[in-house]
Amino acid sequence: MSSGVLSREFEGYIGQSSMIRAMFETGIKLKKEHGEDKVCDFSLGNPDLPPPREVKQAMLELAEEADKPFAFGYMPNAGFPWLLEMMADEYSREQGTKISAGDILLTGGAAGAINCLFRAVLERGDEVIGMRPYFVDYINYAANFGGVFKPVDTSADFSLNLAAIEAAITAQTRVVLINSPHNPTGQIYSKEELEGLVAILRKKSAEHGRPIFLASDEPYRFLTFDGAVVPAVLPMYEYAIVLGSFAKNMSLPGERLGYLIASPNMPDKASFMGGVVMASRILGFLNAPVVGQKILKHALGKGVDLEIYARRRQMLGQILSDAGYEFTMPRGAFYFFPKAPGGDDLAFNQILAKQLILGVPGTGFGMPGYFRLAFCVDEKVIARSADGFKRAIDSVK
């Protein structure tokens, strides 16, 4: 029975999160009982690598400024003008199109960027189409502003199912949200897929009389394998928006520093950017963290050692393959998304927990029958998981 202290909507959110909460509680219990050095925790996408050395240098310099007036004061809501200019140069190279400082908004993480976008463009009842499996908070981000998250199934290899996307678009569709490299599958959408998607969005925008935005959530753009390339969406489509962060590539997730970049070719771009900047104010963010912005003065364009992630991917892939799991090797990001032996992802994650291995059921990403493993962990953890993965799958067989 409800106590009345929360809205009915938030009581529902808490009920839906019970599975993930139980997974965290299981991890705490196992580590307490057996010791942290015995548990193989692949549950969280929390990067363990140290930040690039430029971050330390920036922090030392910032400490010298700490006794100066306004060292940590307000700045324009979009971010420091000098940093926006630096980012414009950096992302013009990345996206292959001329980006200006006025095309960029610094935000409280990529999540903040998504919420600013949705606040600025969604009417109540508007749809946000996303790909299944999906990051579960996309649902809540859309609902924050009266929107409806509408998942569309991907193809068997987790590539875009263009026919399904086109069939799902209605007059209420306002945003198509993609994530590439993808969490939790590691898939990267090809240029041909994205060009096909853009053609559909142009057609449907004209048909329904208002633009459908293509929002590309790209916190893992930096991490690809085997020569894979992440195509740039900004030159492809005038209503494209890139959403990103410095959480994964610089191991700064707790600093909550992200960004939104609008296509330089967007019609009435000034109104759009004015809207998302105002959203950052009225949502209470005001501006992205000042410490993170000043870190970027030295560290923009720098990153962690990608070879470490490549070795971990190879190690865990070999362990899963040797044990007999069915999976697609991730092309990017730091996740595996294998099929759950026996088909019941919730039950199989309990079996893994008995082997002191923590994963996340695919049900948490809207896709039962799979489970996610984050390999942003030490190689020693990966190595000692081998026997447990084998015993777990053998118990199902």
Characterize this entry briefly.
The protein is of the alpha/beta class and 397 residues long. The protein has 14 helices and twelve strands.
Biggest sheet descriptor: 7 strands, mixed
The residue ranges in which pLDDT falls below 50 over 5 or more consecutive positions are: none
Order of helices and strands: HHEHHEHEHEHEHEEEHHHEHEEEHH
Q: Helix coverage percent of residues?
A: 40-55%
As a whole number of angstroms, the C-alpha radius of gyration is 21 Å
Describe this structure in words.
With 397 residues, this protein is an alpha/beta fold. It has 14 helices and 12 strands. The strands form 3 sheets. Strands 2-8-7-6-5-3-4 form a 7-stranded mixed sheet, sandwiched between helices. It has a 3-stranded antiparallel sheet with strand order 9-12-11, with helices on one face. Helix 6 (137-143) links the parallel strand 3 and strand 4. The radius of gyration is 21 Å and the shape is globular.
Question: How do the helices and strands line up, and which of them pair or pack?
Answer:
Blueprint: H1 8-16, H2 18-34, E1 40-41, H3 53-65, H4 81-95, E2 104-107, H5 109-121, E3 127-132, H6 137-143, E4 148-153, H7 162-168, E5 173-179, H8 191-208, E6 213-217, E7 240-245, E8 258-262, H9 269-282, H10 290-299, H11 306-323, E9 335-336, H12 345-354, E10 357-358, E11 360-361, E12 371-374, H13 379-384, H14 386-396
